[in-house]
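User: Can you predict the 3D structure of Alanine--tRNA ligase? Sequence below.
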Amino acid sequence: MKNLSSSEIRQMFLDFFQSKGHTIEPSASLVPNDDPTLLWVNSGVATLKKYFDGSVIPKNPRITNAQKCIRTNDIENVGKTARHQTFFEMLGNFSVGDYFKKEVIPWAFEFLTSPEWIGMDPEKLYITTYPKDTDTQKLWIETGIDPKHIFKVEDNFWDIGEGPCGPDSEIFYDRGQSFNNLAEDDPESYPGGENERWLEVWNIVFSELNHLPSGKYVEQPHKNIDTGMGLERLVSVIQGTKTNFETDLFMPIIEHVESLSDGRKYDTNEADDVSFKIIADHARTVSFAVGDGALPSNEGRGYVIRRLIRRAVLNGKKLGIDGPFLYKLVPIVGKIMESYYPEVSQQQDFIAKTIEVEEKRFSETLNDGLGLLNGVIDDLKKKNEKVIDGESAFKLFDTYGFPLELTVEYAHDEGLSVDEDGFKHNMELQRERARGARGDLQSMGMQDETLMEIKTPSEFVGYDNDEIQATLKDIIVNDEIVDSVSMTAQKAQLIFDKTPFYAEMGGQVADIGNIYDKNNNQVAEVIDVQHAPNGQNIHLVNVISELDVNEEYTLKINVDFREKVRHNHTATHLLDQALRDVVGPRTHQAGSLVEPGYLRFDFNSNESLNPEQIAQLEKIVNEKIWAAIPVETEVLPIEEAKKKKGAIAMFSEKYGDVVRVVEVDDYSTEFCGGTHVRNTAEIGLFKITSESAVGSGVRRIDAVTGEEAFEYLNDQLNELKATAVNMKVNQLKDVAARAEQLVAENKKLARDNQNLKVQLTSQKSAEVFDKVEDINGLKVITNVIAADDMSTLRQLADKWKSENKSDVLVLGAGSGDKANLVVSVNKDGQAAGIKAGDLIKQIAKEIQGGGGGRPDMAQAGGKNPDGLTKALQLAKDIIKNN
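Assistant: Sure. Here are the predicted structure tokens for Alanine--tRNA ligase:
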């Protein structure tokens, strides 16, 4: 069996089926497109339903793919078994009414056992089939499987109810009794049983029947093939690892986690190994999921991501890792997968930032949560009890952000269970207490019962004030209400009777700033502001010196930070309306982020913006800025605002009976509680820096304003000046013309070069074709020529064909670290059993490469030019022994 990397195995699979006439279907997004039945794409065939149900006819009925998938139904088994993952890749080959059993079975055997491909020992392969499917059993035997290695299993019938169905055949690899976790005489110790010895690597479904609503099975008019082979399992077999996690798909991640831990090493402690595996698996899953546009939230896909991040953080704690760390693994995941999935590396900054923010939210209270949970567990063990009560489980959820599933899983590891009914009862009590505060609770990771009980009135006065005097009403430290706090660098949460600090909401980040005492000494640094359950702005601070309740303090926001945020927030309103003007009235906001340094705006669209549209958007927004339009705000009953003002609701926001309306003349009118400029002229300048896709049907615009926009344009201008210097152009206005001229000249040179090559090829052909050998009754020409690309070889092959110089032509060319081969065979050569595609596969290994083609023409590329002479000699030997 060959020694191959995971990327080589993936590509080899695709190359194999491409050589069998299959079209390679690119991996689709993990977020299903127009398929409400799926939360995630969970199989290779999931994205091909349109072909199998007949709603879309594929251009080629033969399809192959490597599809990224997510399944979370067995999430609690991840790390505890050799093979469970939430993210995995499924290799598949599919026939839509084309080939069937007699083709697919030999192909599967060829791919797995041929020395040209994987090169497995056929004696190690075992097959399961449906008992009544005698055709499949015969085909496996004819292909070369030992009849004793074929098992008839009733479960080998793929049927999910009404619709296509049929028998299936699974291929298992025997790793030997040393891998088995069962005795040899155990009833489950057989291929297909629950054991670790025989590893399923491939499943072939023969979709030949229709399951009717009546329950009857009838033959399908068009029989289909649907196969699936887990890449991770195949890699573990080829790389000879104990589990999937020791392969090159996971070990770089695990090794990096080792370096982040407190000295733990993988494969030395069973409990630690489980944590290493969970982290490695979840790092892959969330990196790909976020990259495909799914973001952490409290429901649906977002909840899956949030849960996986929290599971990873918890297991990081078990390995002695404090603080956010999962985001640091994103570049590792990207590097492992970039040969076929470059999107993770391309988006790694955004993915890492998204994960880091989520980790920070959870980490703020994680230590205290784990302390509570471990305390509960210790108390139960002392009392010899086995059930964590519902109130404790709920407190972990409500105060520390532990989903119930995590508590159940953590308890299970300690041999305990959880009173889930009691948890649900406490959840209902909380809902009654919180009433309408549920939305705020979910928007903030640090909400807890203590905060919910605080009813102190607090007024936000930051629309008109940057600095005020306010009385400190409540101090919360470690989830307890205290009268004072004085420990330097300690974190605390503060509520004042009024505040100028804006709490994060509607995409706008929170204000930052400082708090001073009566003597103007700084006593705290405000690093974040969120909404408490009862609506107050709660300030998360780093304590510098003592603070006491009922004392008066000076609250100062960072004015420069606020000003830049205000500029960007008003710009998002202008951009929102401009998008409706340019793209269409149905365009709506799908999310936003307003930071001091930039703004991000997501909107629904299935098509990217073209350069003309981007330019038009910039023109509209800047015209509104330069028109110096007053920005007015008004608080109105919501129905009046809708009718009288025609205000537009921002994405995903919930509104009360009274709303704040922000108007920019008669151009933009929106509900918004954020901070804005007083006049559009304050924004200064608006520039779009990028436009990209973030998920199915969602596009993203990144933009800058004011000083940042000036710096961005200045950087662009400096690059243009440097380009002008390199092009030897005196005036910037001439750069475009000069670039166009250079492109035209380059094209002409390329054409001239190609024409010269044609002439040289014609001249070379005489000497290339002058030596004809007679080998086994065939005229054969072999030669290594001086050429730096494949086109010259193909031109010579065409000339050879037109002049009928011999029966077989084998040409090679090398340049630097690249080698190329071309094989052509005429009809007489093919009749004698020589096929160009087969021959080139055999000789390409001498140049450390691969290739393929038709019986009459084939080509290959490699990285060992020194092997060309051996390749040509091997070709002659093969023809001689044919």
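Residues 434-448, 650-654 have pLDDT under 50 and may be disordered. The longest strand covers residues 198-211.
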